[in-house]
C-alpha cells in the first residue's frame, strides 16, 4: 500500500498522459528513440527495425505502456544481429490475437495473410510453403485465388 501523505507530497503537479494504446502514432517515434539508446549502449551503433517487426509493435495494445515498449526494444536489441526482426520479439507479441474492433478481419482474410507471410518466408516457393502449411499445392493455390 502506498502512503497517502507521501502521495500528496509527490502530486504537486499532475500531468495527465493518455495510455500508449491511445497514442499508437507515437510508437514508431518511441521505437526509434529506444533503438538508438540501446543500439549505442549494447552494439556501439544504431540498430534499425524491420518493417514487419514494427507492424507487430504497432498492432499490440501495450498494457504496460511505454515502459513495456522500452523493455521489449531493449531485449530485442540485445538479441538481434544487425536489425531487430520478428524473431527478436517475444512470442506474446508475434502471436497476439487482440485487435482493435475497427481492424477485425474475417477468418479467410487472416488465413490468406498468413499464407502470404509463409510464402514470403520461403522466397515465394509454393512447394515449401505448402509443406509448412501441411496442405497440397492445389489447396494453396485455391486459398490464394479466393
Describe this structure in words.
It is a single chain. The protein is mainly α. The chain has helices at residues 4-10, 27-43, 51-59, 65-79, 91-94, 107-121, 126-133, 137-145; strands at 48-49, 83-84. The mean pLDDT is 88.
Question: What is the structure about, briefly put?
Answer:
The protein is mainly α and 146 residues long. It has 8 helices and 2 strands, in the order H-H-E-H-H-E-H-H-H-H.
Rg over alpha carbons? 20 Å
Number of domains: 2
Number of strands: 2
CATH fold name of the largest domain: Helicase, Ruva Protein, domain 3
Quickly give the structural class.
mainly alpha
Distance between the first and last residues' Cα: 57 Å
Q: Judging by the overall fold, what is the CATH architecture of the largest domain?
A: Orthogonal Bundle
User: Rough shape?
Assistant: elongated
How would you state the average pLDDT, rounded? 88
Count of helical stretches: 8
Main beta sheet: 2 strands, parallel
- Which percent bin holds the helix content? 55-70%
Strand order of the largest sheet: 1-2
The arrangement of helices and strands along the chain is HHEHHEHHHH
Amino acid at each position: 500500500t502506498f502512503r497517502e501523505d507521501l502521495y500528496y507530497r509527490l502530486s504537486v503537479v499532475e500531468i495527465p498522459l493518455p495510455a500508449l494504446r491511445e497514442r499508437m502514432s507515437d510508437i514508431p517515434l518511441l521505437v526509434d528513440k529506444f533503438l538508438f539508446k540501446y543500439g549505442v549502449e549494447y552494439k556501439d551503433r544504431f540498430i534499425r527495425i524491420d518493417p514487419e517487426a514494427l507492424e507487430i509493435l504497432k498492432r499490440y495494445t501495450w498494457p504496460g505502456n511505454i515502459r513495456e515498449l522500452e523493455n521489449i526494444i531493449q531485449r530485442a536489441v540485445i538479441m538481434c544481429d544487425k536489425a531487430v526482426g520478428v524473431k527478436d520479439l517475444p512470442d506474446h507479441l508475434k502471436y497476439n490475437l487482440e485487435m482493435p474492433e475497427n481492424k477485425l478481419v474475417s477468418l479467410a482474410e487472416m488465413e490468406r495473410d498468413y499464407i502470404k507471410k509463409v510464402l514470403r518466408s520461403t522466397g515465394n516457393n509454393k512447394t515449401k510453403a505448402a509443406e509448412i502449411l501441411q496442405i497440397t499445392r492445389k489447396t494453396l493455390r485455391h486459398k490464394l485465388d479466393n
